[in-house]
Structures are given as C-alpha cells and as structure tokens.
Amino acid sequence: MVWLLDRSEVLVQPSTTRRRMSPIGLSVTRSPRLSQTRMEPSPSKSGRYPVHRNMMSNDEKPAGPPPSGRPRSVPVRSALSAALAGCVVALALPWSHVAIADAAPDSAIRYVALGDSRATGSPHDPLSIRDGCFRTSDAYPQIVADTLGAASYVSRACAGAKTENITNTPQFTITGAQPPQIGALQPDTTLVTVSIGGNDIAWSSLVEPCYTFVPGLDANCRSDATTARRMNDALTVLGPKVSATLAAITGKSPAATVLVVGHGGIFGDRGCWPYIPTSDADAAFVVQFFVKMNDVLADAARRNGAYFVDVAAAAVGHDACAGSDRRWFEGLVPRSFTMPLHPTHEGLRAMASLVVAARP
Q1: Nearest 10 degrees: CA dihedral of 48, 266, 231, 3?
Q2: Per-residue DSSP letters for 48-85?
Q3: Are the CB atoms for 166 and 251 separated by under 8 Å?
Q4: Is 45 exposed, middle or buried (0-12, 13-18, 19+ CB in 10 A)?
Q5: Which Gene3D superfamilies does this entry report, sorted A to Z (predicted)?
Q6: In the chain, what are the domain boundaries?
Q7: Residues 111, 341, 166, 304: what is their CA dihedral angle, to the nearest 10 degrees?
Q8: Which of 69, 124, 298, 314 is least buried, going by the fewest C-beta atoms within 10 A?
Q9: Is 199 helix (H, G, I), strand (E, B) or coil?
Q10: Residue pair 68/135 in contact by the 8 Å Cβ criterion
Q11: Distance of CA 130 to the CA centre of its chain
Q12: Is the pTM above the cut of 0.90?
C-alpha cells in the first residue's frame, strides 16, 4: 500500500544563505537569495546532499496539548506498488520521546499553522480522521505552540492541501469540505507557519521514474530528458503560486512573522530498497530536485518578507535510509507508525526545533 502526495519541476540553483544554529544544533536559513540554472539530466554523479495535529476543532483554541492528525503520500509505479503492497506494515512501536520543555504562556504569541500533511503530524491517533485533515497532537506546529507557550494556537493544516486551499478554494476531504485555511488568520496574528507546495506539483509522481522493481537495478532517471523537463516545468509553475499565497497571508496578518517550512530530507545520497527503491546515483539526483524546490520556496519567502526554514540542510544523515535512531523520515515502505514519505515522530520534533530557532 503506497500513499500519494505532490507534483512539480523548475529552473533554479542552490541559493546563497545565512545560517544560524538552533538550540539543538540544526541550521536555519534566513531570507535566502536565489540564482537560476536549469535542472538538466546528469550522469551518475552523486551530487551534494543538502537534505533536506492535534485533534482540534477549526476554531482557535488556547495552546496546550491538543489531539491528532496526519499526512498523505505518494503513488509509485503500479508494478512497484504491487510488489511492495505486502511489505507495507504500520508498526505501532513506542516512540522515544525527547524532552522539550514547554514555555510559560506568552500572551504576545498568537499562532496559526497552515499547510499540508507535513504539518498535520503522524497518524498515531485513529480519531484524527474525524475532521478529514488528519491533524494529530505530535504535529510540529503543536510542538512549536507548546514550546513557545503561545497564548493561542489554531491549526488549519490539512492532508493533501494545495496553495489554493490556503487562499481561496475549499478542500474536499472524506468528511466534507474544509474552508480556505486563510480564514483562521486575524489582524493580530503574530506567528504563521506554512508547509505547502508538494501537492501542487505532485512531487512523488515526478520522482517515480527513478524507482526500480528489483534491488540492485538502476533506473537511470538522472539521464532522462523527459524527467528533467517535467521537474523544471513543475517548479517554474510553483514559484508564483507560493508567492501569491504568502502575499495573501501577509495581507491578512501584516504584523505576523511568517515562516515557510522547506521540503526535502526523505532522500539521501543512496538508495535502500524497498524503502528508497533507487540507485545511489538516482537518489542523489532526487536530492538535487529538492534543492531546487527549496530554492523556489526560499525565493518566494524572501520576496514576501517571510523566513525560510531549511529542513533539508538540517536533515542530512536523517533520511529514510538512516537507522531507527537517526531517521527523521520514512520511505515508500515505512518502518514505524508513520505515513510513507513523511516525517517520523522524531522528525516532527526536529522540524519544530528548527521553526522555533528561525523566529527573529
């Protein structure tokens, strides 16, 4: 059983950024700059590895330990899907919780979380399905709210959301229509996090040509001109969408600090079938795709006075091929109670630390 997520492609190259270290040693990127190059199919060079809700009602609630949520994932080639179907087993294993001290309530922080399944959490609470968005209590925005002691916190993040579902288009879920997420913003909102873009470009389908049916094979997607073109085209379209979304957010909450949480981290510099069923060279090629996607997101953030949180850079060595003690993301076949191609519980906590550190 393999899940579906996002799609896109573009013309950019790693940006020049300033980084500082978070309390747990993770780097945070501020107002990055973007230069442009086209993503071309390359030989088998590995490339650099930049790697990368709580069941609440839709009404704003005081921050505190709320309930649940979860993400949506990616389709794989049908043959591979069939081959892996019997392998995908959700293991309800106990998580090793890292203590994160919650702050005393801060009346100055009024926090709204927007976005897709990366901001809804891991599916540990079966009741998270009741609002159709799969928000859970271990979502990174919930951890951020608790850590900062936010006076108020509301999450409108919803699995499967696209940029249009934030700004002006209802999102239809298994429990009915969800109103545009931007409705949760108020003039006095002081903090907004945004995790978006993956579903707009259906990124998972863009990297499908890199998957192999049998361990040890090399799909060589890195040399396929069609794959490179589709990626470039998708990212070209994504930039204006994200920029327009951020402009709408700042228009509703002009005093808010807006943090755009980056993509990436799932793929590293090697494959590990069936979790990441690619050759090492193709895995590195996919990493470069996410570098370019993050450049697009970072540029949109810079253009709209927002901050970019570089999850991929902090996640080097924590990809889906890493051991259980270091893994922040699951691959196509999850080895923990986490959606395929989404952050693990520990990954969500790391993302929360990055967000907290990114606040000016």
Answers
A1: 170
A2: ----------SS-B-SS---EE--------HHHHHHHH
A3: no
A4: exposed
A5: SGNH hydrolase
A6: 11-358
A7: 70
A8: 124
A9: helix
A10: yes
A11: 22
A12: no
Supply the residues annotated as catalytic.
117, 342
Note the pLDDT tens digit of each residue in 59-80.
Answer: 444 444 333 333 333 333 444 4
Say if CB 283 and CB 267 are below 8 A apart.
yes
Phi–psi pair at 20, nearest 5 degrees: -135, 165
**Residues 174-214: pLDDT tens digits?**
889 999 999 999 999 999 999 999 999 999 999 999 999 89
Length reported for the chain: 360
- For the domain made up of 11-358, give the CATH fold: Rossmann fold (3.40.50)
Strand partners, 112: 154, 192
Give the residue among 283, 313, 285 at the shortest CA–CA distance from 297.
313
CB atoms within 10 A of CB 328: 25
Q: Which string of DSSP letters, residue by residue, matches 30-54?
A: EEEEEEEEE-----S----------
Q: Compute the distance between CA of residue 39 and CA of residue 50 in angstroms, rounded to an integer.
A: 16
d(CA 214, CA 205): 19
3-state secondary structure of 261: strand
Burial of residue 78 (CB within 10 Å: 0-12, 13-18, 19+) is exposed
Cα–Cα distance, 328 to 334 (Å, whole number): 11
Q: Which tokens belong to 345?
A: 């519980």
**3-state helix vs strand vs coil in the chain, percent to 5:** 35, 20, 50
